[in-house]
């Protein structure tokens, strides 16, 4: 347990150290000051009760990033904020990529300094209490466990996060988890769909406006940034922002200030930005549709949400959780074997959102509280998929959906086994399923005996790896 609110300030300019020291002292904090990397290292080795380190980027004997790296290598969970020169956004991005939780630009604004320190102290307080586990209704696959672990790390940072992934993979849910586990959890989480706002209204919606600023502005109004002050602003479908708004957003991120429409004054905002899109944002940059400088400011840390087809083993857990939420106090319907097999084999191009829609429709159509294959209506969904011309569609004479799904599953497993040289554990990894799931599918499809002789010693290796 830390006994005091002590902060380490590292800067080679005496007047900056004095200003920060005085400001923090008025907040009831104890401050140690250092003028170089070497001096800061000695203080960090002597004391382990610091709750925050504020360091300048440029120091006489090195860079502030060396302090960030030292704390990371030594395993100390100490928030570090880097002070960068005005107009040096690249330094701020480099600092946050290295592990700094936030940054300040010179000249240091006292309001921003106080806000940053309060956030850092909340991080320190939360690190001493039991860690909040993510509400992982998404599943228990290795892919989602990796997502959960990264969310825990991102929650301790103030760095902008970019969440990529196909539509329906749960990007907003991931953003909400980052916010819920962060020191900003008690402040607002404001989600914004950038593609749903008319271009003519974007500036007033994002930054607010003053009474009389334009026709219809009959009162003062805050924008999304003011509404999210102290919390998190989630910008979904960020790729849909027009270029003129991208310029304004970049300035807000760099300066941490906004100007309402009709005002000549800027006001400070304390907002963490999390952005997302289902499009390839880097490709948008290459095509000139998205500013490269904004891309690098938003994509300090990327969180990739995997599609459902790459984590099929999560479908049973997801389905049960979704049905429980949809049915409420009512009894949860059971599945027939055929319906359950079809559900777990379907590719779900719409991901978790499509799974929710399929189950909602099935519960409405089923009778006697039992979901049958026809209640899922997956054949309608498959019919909407583009034909590949490779003979893998439903165009084979006399083949129904059940036969189609079995054939596709068998072919996928057979291809994976060939790629893995007959090793079932490696084939399971290729398919993104567990070894137990692989063994169950081989047995259900009658492929256990077909592949037994081929595997030979690889079988023993597979069991050992499990």
Write the CATH homologous superfamily of the largest domain: P-loop containing nucleotide triphosphate hydrolases
Taking the sheet with the most strands, its summary is: 5 strands, parallel
Question: What percentage of the residues does DSSP assign to strands (E)?
Answer: 5-15%
The CATH topology of the largest domain is given as: Rossmann fold
Helix content: 40-55%
Radius of gyration: 27 Å
The top-level CATH class of the largest domain is Alpha Beta
**Cα distance spanning the termini:** 40 Å
Estimate nothing, just give the exact number of structural domains: 4
Report on this structure.
This protein is of the alpha/beta class and 466 residues long. The protein has four domains: 6-127, Response regulator (Rossmann fold); 153-304, P-loop containing nucleotide triphosphate hydrolases (Rossmann fold, 3-Layer(aba) Sandwich); 308-385, Helicase, Ruva Protein, domain 3 (Orthogonal Bundle), CATH 1.10.8; 401-466, Arc Repressor Mutant, subunit A. It contains 22 helices and 16 strands. Strands 2-1-3-6-7 form a five-stranded parallel sheet, sandwiched between helices. Helix 4 (89-98) links the parallel strand 6 (80-84) and strand 7 (102-105). Helix 14 (337-345) packs across helix 18 (401-419), helix 18 packs across helix 19 and helix 19 (424-431) crosses helix 20. It is globular. The two termini are 40 Å apart. The relative contact order is 0.07. Mean pLDDT is 82; it is low at 127-137, 383-395 and 453-466.
């Amino acid at each position: 347990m830390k006994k005091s609110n002590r902060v380490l300030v590292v800067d080679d300019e005496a007047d900056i150290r004095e200003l920060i020291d005085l400001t923090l002292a008025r907040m009831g904090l104890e401050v140690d000051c250092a003028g170089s990397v070497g001096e800061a290292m000695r203080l960090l080795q002597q004391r382990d009760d610091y709750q925050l380190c504020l360091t300048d980027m440029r120091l006489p004997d090195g860079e502030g990033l060396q302090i960030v790296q030292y704390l990371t290598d030594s395993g100390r969970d100490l928030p570090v904020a880097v002070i960068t020169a005005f107009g040096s956004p690249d330094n701020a991005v480099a600092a946050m990529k290295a592990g700094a939780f936030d940054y300040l630009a010179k000249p240091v604004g006292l309001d921003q300094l106080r806000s940053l320190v309060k956030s850092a102290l909340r991080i320190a307080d939360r690190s001493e209490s039991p860690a909040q586990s993510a509400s992982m209704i998404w599943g228990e696959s290795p892919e989602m466990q990796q997502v959960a672990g990264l969310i825990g790390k991102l929650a301790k940072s103030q760095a902008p996060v970019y969440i990529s992934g196909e539509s329906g993979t749960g990007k907003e849910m991931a953003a909400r988890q980052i916010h819920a586990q962060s020191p900003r959890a008690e402040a607002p989480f404001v989600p914004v769909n950038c593609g749903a706002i008319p271009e003519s209204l974007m500036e007033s919606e994002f930054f607010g406006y003053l009474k009389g600023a334009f026709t219809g502005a009959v009162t003062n109004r805050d924008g999304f940034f003011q509404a999210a002050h102290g919390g998190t602003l989630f910008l979904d479908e960020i790729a849909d922002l027009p270029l003129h708004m991208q310029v304004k957003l970049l300035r807000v991120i760099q300066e941490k200030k906004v100007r309402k429409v009709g005002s000549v004054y800027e006001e400070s905002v304390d907002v963490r930005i999390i952005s997302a899109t289902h499009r390839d944002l880097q490709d948008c940059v290459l095509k000139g549709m998205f500013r490269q400088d904004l891309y690098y400011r938003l994509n300090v840390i990327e969180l990739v949400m995997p599609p459902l087809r790459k984590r099929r083993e999560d479908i049973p857990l997801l389905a049960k959780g979704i049905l429980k939420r949809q049915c409420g106090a009512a009894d949860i319907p059971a599945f027939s074997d055929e319906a359950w097999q079809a559900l777990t084999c379907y590719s779900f191009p719409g991901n978790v959102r499509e799974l929710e829609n399929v189950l909602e429709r099935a519960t409405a159509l089923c009778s006697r509280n039992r979901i049958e294959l026809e209640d899922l209506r997956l054949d309608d969904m498959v019919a909407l998929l583009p034909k590949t011309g490779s003979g893998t569609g439903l165009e084979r004479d006399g083949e129904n959906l059940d036969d189609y799904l079995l054939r596709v599953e068998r072919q996928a497993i057979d291809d994976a086994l060939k790629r893995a040289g007959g090793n079932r554990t490696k084939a399971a990894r290729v398919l993104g399923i567990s070894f137990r799931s692989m063994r169950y599918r081989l047995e259900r499809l009658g492929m256990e005996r077909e592949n037994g002789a081929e595997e030979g010693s690889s079988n023993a290796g597979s069991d050992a790896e499990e």
